Structure formats: structure tokens, C-alpha cells
Amino acid sequence: MEAVPAITTAVHRTGRPLGSETRAELAHDAACMAARMVESCEARGRPIIPRSVTYYAVQASKTGRRFNSNGSCDAMSERAMAQGKSNVVSTVERVSLSSPDGLSFGDVIADPRPDPASAAATNAKISEFFCCEHANANACGT
Length: 142
Fold this sequence. Notes:
Layout: H1 4-14, H2 23-44, H3 50-62, H4 78-82, E1 94-95, E2 103-104, H5 105-109, H6 116-123, H7 126-130
Antiparallel strand pairs: 1-2
Helix pairs in contact: 1-2, 1-3, 2-3
């Protein structure tokens, strides 16, 4: 496909990676969108114009559209990030709101009490799991 080098160049020059994306991933994604456009044109019997395919694939990539999804209902989707509807927040980065020492998001959502499963495991006797103290104690090897 002759549009791929032009797509790669344009995306590396103008593409804005969102989240953990790289420019190379954006270029591959735009190439996949271009391939989908070419297949659609072939299926409809329309002429394929490489410049148009390149242009629309790059523009779709810039607006946050991706090959595997175009929706913005997922808070982690690239389109939602591109539209400013969501952003990624670190759970360990300190944020000073009103306290001078600052809290992290992880500190706010963490519960200082131990969860019930770990408390039960700590208080359990190992003999309760492996042996029993009633009639069939000999079967346990004690």
C-alpha cells in the first residue's frame, strides 16, 4: 500500500500520543484504518485515491479515533482523553490539597484496616487445616 510511508511520516510529525501510546503505535493504527478504508472502497467499487486515504487516516488518528474502537464512553479510551473528558491520575504522586504533607490518591482510597481474609488467615491455626481432633484423628497421622 503506497499510503503507508506518507501516513507514518505525517503521524510522526503531527500525531499526539495519548496515555501510554507512542508515535509508532499511532502510525500503525492509522495504517490499519487506511487499510480498512481501502477495503471499504474496493467492496463498494469506488476508486482508491491514496492521498485521500492518507489524509483521512491521519485526521482520524489526530481526533482520538483508533482502529479497534471509536467510542468515548470508556474513561481510559484515547478519544475520551483527546476530548478532555478524562485524564489519568497517578495513585502514588503526592498532591497537596489543604494539608502541608500532601496525600496521594492511593492514601485516600486505602483502608488502614486489614481485609477479613488476611485477618482470618493470620488467626487460623495450621492444625485446623491439616488435622482434626475428633474420631478420625488417626487418619490424619496424629
